[in-house]
Every structure is written in structure tokens, then in C-alpha cells.
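Dear Dr. K.,

Following up on our conversation at the group meeting, I've run the structure prediction for DUF1540 domain-containing protein from Brevibacillus aydinogluensis. I'm pasting the input sequence below exactly as I used it, so you can double-check it against your construct before we proceed with anything downstream. Let me know if the numbering doesn't match what you have in your notebook.
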Amino acid sequence: MPIVKCSVSNCEYWSEGNNCSAEMIMVEIDSHAHANFKEEFAGEYGHDSQHKDQVNDSSQTCCHTFKPKKDEKK
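The predicted C-alpha cells came back this morning:
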């Protein structure tokens, strides 16, 4: 598995050194950014990977693996 770097520190899968600890990464195109693919992919594999899209550069993509960190305060 490749090393995935991420600077979104409020993600459940963010780990020290700006590394992503998710078991799987789902990258989607921006035009699908507000589609409901039942997020929280890393452990559930409930994503839509059947469609195929094309973009011209990375600025047209987004990561759908993001999951907000759970509040650690009790």
C-alpha cells in the first residue's frame, strides 16, 4: 500500500506526520462532491466504484474517505 499524505488533521484517519491511516482511499471528481455515496469508506467499502470519470488535473478531484474525528471529550 502506498503512503498517503494528508494535512486534514480533523479526519478520523489522520495520523502523525500527516499520514492517512485509512485501509482504503476513495478519490472522486468534484462534480460528484455532493453526491451521497454513504461515506466512511475505509472500513465499510460502501462506495460507488463502478462508474468511471476523467479529469484534466488534480484540482478537479476530492477525497471522499474523509470522516470527522470523534469528539474525545466525555
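Two things stood out to me. The chain is about 5% helix and 15% strand. The beta strands are 14-15, 19-20, 27-29, 61-63.

Best regards,
J.T.
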